[in-house]
Amino acid sequence: MISFAHAQTAAPAAPGFADFLPLIIIFILFWFMLIRPQMKRAKEQKKMLADLQKGDEVVTASGQVGKVTKLSDQYVALEIADGVITHVQKQSIQTLLPKGTIKSL
Q: Are 58 and 52 in contact (CB under 8 A)?
């Protein structure tokens, strides 16, 4: 019979910094390529909504183009055609257009 006592391998080494290095690199890449740009866009969107004024031309998330006629804390009244006013949530406004864009459409 073969003795198994002599066939044992050495105890595994304790995990070191080099073992976690790939995970750290992946997290850093994830941060700079996904999280950071998304936070920057969210900050710009929040600033745009805070600076929104009556008369601004905007595009909503659903694609409606209109002119802001009334503002409140949570809702915006948009004039999408002459005499046609819709009410949308302020958060659904996606883009602020340059003045005169609606006339060129």
A: yes
Rounded CA gap, 18 and 58, in Å?
A: 51
Distance in angstroms (rounded) separating the CA atoms of residues 13 and 87: 65
- Residue 77, beta-bridge partner list: 70, 87
Query: d(Cα 35, Cα 73) in Å, to the nearest integer?
Result: 28
Residue 22, amino acid: P
Please give the residue range of the domain that contains residue 66.
Answer: 53-105
Cα 86 to chain centroid distance, Å, stands at 26
**Domain-embedded: residue 90:** yes
pLDDT tens readout for residues 33-50: 999 999 999 999 999 999
Is the pLDDT at 9 greater than 80? The verdict is: no
Based on the domain organization, do 57 and 104 belong to the same domain?
A: yes
Collapsing DSSP to helix, strand or coil, 63 comes out as: coil
User: Could you tell me if 45 and 63 lie in one domain?
Assistant: no
58 close to 86: Cβ distance less than 8 angstroms = no
